[in-house]
Design a protein that fits this description.
Largest sheet: 5 strands, mixed, barrel
Strand content: over 45%
Strand order of the largest sheet: 3-4-5-7-6
CATH class: Mainly Beta
Radius of gyration: 14 Å
CATH superfamily: Bacterial OB-fold
Number of strands: 8
Number of domains: 1
Structural class: mainly beta
Distance between the termini: 10 Å
Number of helices: 1
Order of helices and strands: EEEEEHEEE
Amino acid sequence: MTLRKEGSKWREEGGDQMRRIRGIVIPADWDEQGNVAALVIAAPNEEEYSVGMDKKGKELIAFLREEIEVSGFVSEKKNKKIVKVKEYSSEETKGKIIAGK
């Protein structure tokens, strides 16, 4: 991933913008065994952000139904916002930011 700065904001080379999102982690889909397969962050403004289920995104399964703050790159595909999580913090982590590579 290559980052470039546009004014005061960072963007991924594909044009996705780095954003900070606060909301509640909720399951959005399950596999055949009933395990969570997809997550959504429900923000207070009623926007929903699908979570990219890479390594960092899968870590959020531990925070189901909890409020969390994530920083990541947001893209939009078919009117659906998707966040690729780079770091997150929650009440459980005592505000400590858990950053990824």
